[in-house]
Amino acid sequence: MARRPELLQRLGAVVKVPIAIVPDDMPHAFLLSLDNDKSSVEICDKDQITRAKAVVRAPFLVLLGLLDGTYDADALFFTRDLKIEGRTEHVLALRNTLEEADLTPGEFFGLSGRPAQWMNGFSGTLLDKAKRLAGNGSRNASSMEQGGQR
Length: 150
Known about the structure:
Structural class: alpha+beta
Largest sheet: 5 strands, mixed
Order of helices and strands: HEEEEHHEHHHH
Distance between the termini: 27 Å
Number of helices: 7
Oligomer: single chain
């Protein structure tokens, strides 16, 4: 946020509204809090997201694919591979801001230099492997390939 303050301005009312990002296939969740003074992404147990005003749920690879633009959120929402609970307007504002910002996974996590390159490469490799697995009959990956890919 320090490098891209215009993103906070674009978010408007979403600033200071905690949003939980919950990978269905992992034991933890991410609690995203955006603020002019201190933005954070907190890793927590799934039962600790009660203060979130909105929740985004999907398998981890789907969430990663949404972040880097591999998958289309609207298509995944309608195929029910992506679930949104609570204040959907906040999730929509966040999604629109992230799309406009065109952030890489490394930038999203506040990384730069070699760590950002590592994160970008790692997420690309992970998504490539998931796409190959999609051909092996996974329902979620299959629907992502058919309806969710841009």
